[in-house]
Design a protein that fits this description.
Length: 311
C-alpha cells in the first residue's frame, strides 16, 4: 500500500514539472541541416561538392601511383642494364677465376672455377671495380699465395666478348698492365687471347672443369693434332698447351729445358728471334725476351702480337 502511494506521488510530480512538453515539441518546426553530418552522409545524403572532392582525391592518388610506377620501372631498367654482361675475363694459372664485366667496364660478378680459385678469392671484394684493377688484384692474390713466383710459371688471360674490337682493346690493356706488374728477374709468362662468347664452348669447358679460355686452346690444339684427347691436353702446363694451340708439335718443346726457352719463341741464346710472346729468362743469367718484337732487344713493341715469327 505504501509503495503504490509513492509511485502515484512521483507520477504527479513529473506531470507538474513538464506540463504539455510533448505537445510543444511535436508542434515545433523542424529545420534542415545546412551541412550534413557523418550519419547523414552515410545514409546517402551528400552535398553536391562531395563527389567532386572524391574525384579529385582519386585523381591525386592515381597520379602519385603512376609516378611511383615509372620510378620503379626506371630503377629496374637502369639496374638491369648495369648488371648486363658485355665481356667475360678468364684468369688461369692453376687457380682459375672468371670475371663478368658490364658495358661500363665494371665487374658485376666473380666466380672461382676450381678449389684453388676459391682460396684466391677469399676476402676479396671485386664487384664494381674496373676490370683491369680487379684482374691486377686477383693476380696479386695469386702471387701472395705462392703462384707466379718462378720463371717457368705462366698466366693465361682470355677475354670473351661479342665485340671483337672491344675484346682486342681489353686484351692489349691487360697484357700491358700485367707485364708492368710482373716485370722482374723471374717474371712469369703472360699469355693472352680474345675470343667470341660461345655457349657451346662454355658448356664443354664446364663439363671438363676448365675455363672457356683453356677449352679454346684445347680445341685449337686438336685442330692441329686430333689424336690428342681433351683430357690429355687439359693436364698440360699452360705454356705447352698454348704452343700446341698455335701449331707447334710436342716434339718442338720436349727438347727445351724448362729453365731455358720455356716461352713461345726462341731467344737469341737459343738460336732464334722473339716471335711476339713473352718468354722466360734463359738459364745462366741471360735476359728474358719480353719485348714482343724482334730479337730480345729490351724495347717494348706491342705491335707484334701475332703469335708467329717476327715480321
Amino acid at each position: 500500500m505504501k509503495n503504490k502511494y509513492i509511485e502515484a506521488s512521483l507520477d504527479r510530480a513529473v506531470e507538474q514539472s513538464l506540463p504539455h512538453m510533448y505537445e510543444d515539441l511535436a508542434a515545433e518546426e523542424v529545420r534542415k541541416m545546412d551541412i550534413p553530418d557523418f550519419i547523414m552522409e552515410q545514409s546517402g545524403t551528400r552535398t553536391k561538392e562531395a563527389p567532386a572532392r572524391k574525384r579529385r582525391a582519386f585523381t591525386g592518388r592515381l597520379a602519385a601511383g603512376l609516378v611511383c610506377l615509372l620510378m620503379a620501372v626506371g630503377l629496374y631498367t637502369g639496374w638491369d642494364q648495369y648488371l648486363a654482361v658485355s665481356a667475360i675475363i678468364d684468369l688461369d694459372v692453376n687457380p682459375s677465376i672468371e670475371l663478368d664485366v658490364n658495358q661500363q667496364e665494371r665487374v658485376v660478378d666473380v666466380r672461382a672455377l676450381n678449389q684453388d680459385g676459391e682460396a684466391i678469392l677469399e676476402g676479396l671484394d671485386l664487384k664494381r671495380q674496373s676490370y683491369d684493377q680487379a684482374v691486377l688484384t686477383v693476380i696479386g692474390s695469386m702471387y701472395v699465395n705462392g703462384y707466379l713466383n718462378s720463371s717457368g710459371s705462366a698466366v693465361l688471360v682470355s677475354v670473351q666478348t661479342q665485340d671483337a674490337e672491344k675484346g682486342a682493346a681489353m686484351e692489349n690493356n691487360l697484357q700491358a698492365a700485367l707485364n708492368a706488374m710482373l716485370a722482374g728477374e723471374n717474371s712469369p709468362q703472360v699469355l693472352h687471347q680474345s675470343l667470341a662468347v660461345d655457349q657451346g664452348l662454355r658448356q664443354e669447358a664446364e663439363t671438363y672443369q676448365v675455363s672457356a679460355g683453356v677449352m679454346n686452346l684445347i680445341q685449337q690444339a686438336r685442330s692441329y693434332d686430333p689424336s690428342q684427347t681433351i683430357e690429355e691436353l687439359a693436364q698440360l702446363p699452360l705454356d705447352q698447351l698454348y704452343r700446341l694451340a698455335f701449331g707447334e708439335s710436342i716434339s718442338d718443346y720436349e727438347s727445351d729445358s724448362i729453365y731455358g726457352d720455356s716461352g713461345y719463341g726462341q731467344t737469341e741464346e737459343s738460336g732464334g728471334t722473339g716471335n711476339g710472346v713473352t718468354t722466360a729468362p734463359v738459364s745462366g743469367g741471360a735476359s728474358a725476351d719480353t719485348d714482343y718484337g724482334p730479337a730480345g732487344d729490351g724495347v717494348t713493341d706491342y705491335s707484334d702480337t701475332d703469335y708467329g715469327p717476327a715480321s
